[in-house]
Design a protein that fits this description.
By secondary structure, the protein is mainly alpha-helical. It has helices at 2-20, 28-34, 40-55, 58-62, 65-74, 87-107, 122-143, 147-151, 156-168, 188-192, 199-205, 218-222, and strands spanning 37-39, 112-114, 173-178, 228-233. It folds into two domains: 2-162, no CATH class; 173-233, Alpha-Beta Plaits (2-Layer Sandwich). The strands form two sheets. It has a two-stranded parallel sheet. Helix 1 (2-20) crosses helix 5 (65-74) and helix 2 (28-34) runs parallel beside helix 6. The mean pLDDT is 91.
Length: 240
């Protein structure tokens, strides 16, 4: 039932994507920054960072329309994403992009907040949306499950930094937990994970923290022995 609710929420986020994508745009925030404005996307990215300090990456697994589009691509290509070395690419892209945004904010200050800046419809807006959705879909179609999340997502780093901030400050946050002794090595957790994470190996080591985990709880719900649980807590000590 929980996964039906989650997938239903993701599907609805995809339905709303033509409206909400403007508030998730990496381009609008730059254009607005040149005008001395913090746009809706800037407010949204700040919210994702702050919410992840306690909620980790629940947004990615339950509400992200880009994730929903990629899950649709997964029906055509369900191949696991194995290009783990490419995970660094999104942080490089994010670092350059965010540095430009901050530079423009400083250069064009004092800033004003305009949540609906550049929020308009028309043919141009529809074409931009179609282009963004197509890039997300076809990139995932070519690279495997949630390939865009791994390689080029500009929102994930905000939440990963939020998680690291919580751990650094010893703030309890949403995370997975596991009883490694109860694991029967059936591999269902690996099979169901939409992010192609080696969940079974994480269970064996007794450390369920992983920066690519989107808190979708597929591994929790697929485990026949209920080895994996979830809750709010502090960072676990790594076992050797």
């Amino acid at each position: 039932m929980r996964q039906k609710i989650r997938k239903g929420m993701l599907a609805y986020s995809a339905v709303l994507f033509p409206i909400t994508f403007i508030f998730l745009s990496p381009y609008i925030i730059i254009v607005s920054a040149r005008m001395g404005v913090i746009s809706g996307s800037g407010v949204m990215f700040a919210f994702l960072f702050l919410s992840s300090i306690v909620g980790s990456r629940l947004y990615c697994g339950w509400l992200c329309p880009g994730g929903a589009v990629q899950d649709m691509a997964g029906y055509a290509n369900s191949r696991p994403w194995f290009g783990r070395f490419k995970i660094r690419s999104k942080y490089i892209i994010w670092g350059i992009w965010f540095s430009v945004v901050v530079f423009l904010w400083i250069k064009n200050g004092p800033l004003e907040v305009h949540f609906f800046k550049m929020f308009n419809g028309g043919l141009a807006g529809l074409l931009v949306y179609a282009g963004v959705a197509s890039i997300i879909y076809f990139f995932s179609l070519v690279t495997g499950k949630r390939g865009m999340c791994h390689s080029i997502c500009w929102m994930a780093p905000f939440m990963v930094i939020g998680e690291k901030t919580a751990d650094l400050l010893h703030i309890p946050r949403f995370r997975l937990k596991a009883d490694s002794n109860a694991c029967i090595s059936c591999g269902q957790c690996d099979k169901k994970c939409p992010m192609s994470i080696g969940v079974q190996e994480m269970v064996r080591k007794g450390n369920m923290d992983h920066t690519e985990c989107i808190a979708c709880l597929e591994c929790v719900d697929s485990c026949p022995k209920k080895v994996i649980r979830f809750g709010v807590g502090r960072q676990q000590k790594k076992n050797s």
